[in-house]
Fold:
Amino acid sequence: MDAITETERQRQPDGQSPLMMTVQELARELQLSVKTVRRHEKEGKIPEPARLGQQIRWPRQMILDWIAADCPSRDEWKWKGRRPPGKL
Structure:
C-alpha cells in the first residue's frame, strides 16, 4: 500500500486541491522558495494568512483571487471572501 501524503489527506472528497495552503504549498504554487514566501509575508507583499494555533495557512481561493488582481501588496488589496484572515 502506498503512503498517503499530508496533501492528499487534506484534499477535498472530490479530489480537488486543499482549501487551505501551507507555506510549502504556497511557495510551490507561486514558484518561490519557502524563505521568500515567509519574507514576503513579513513585508506585507502577500495576503495575510490565517493562523490556526501555531499553524499558518492561506485560503486557496484568497490566493487565487489575489493572483487574479495582479498580486497587489497587502495594503492595496483586501480579500472579498467570506471571512477575513487572522486567528480562527
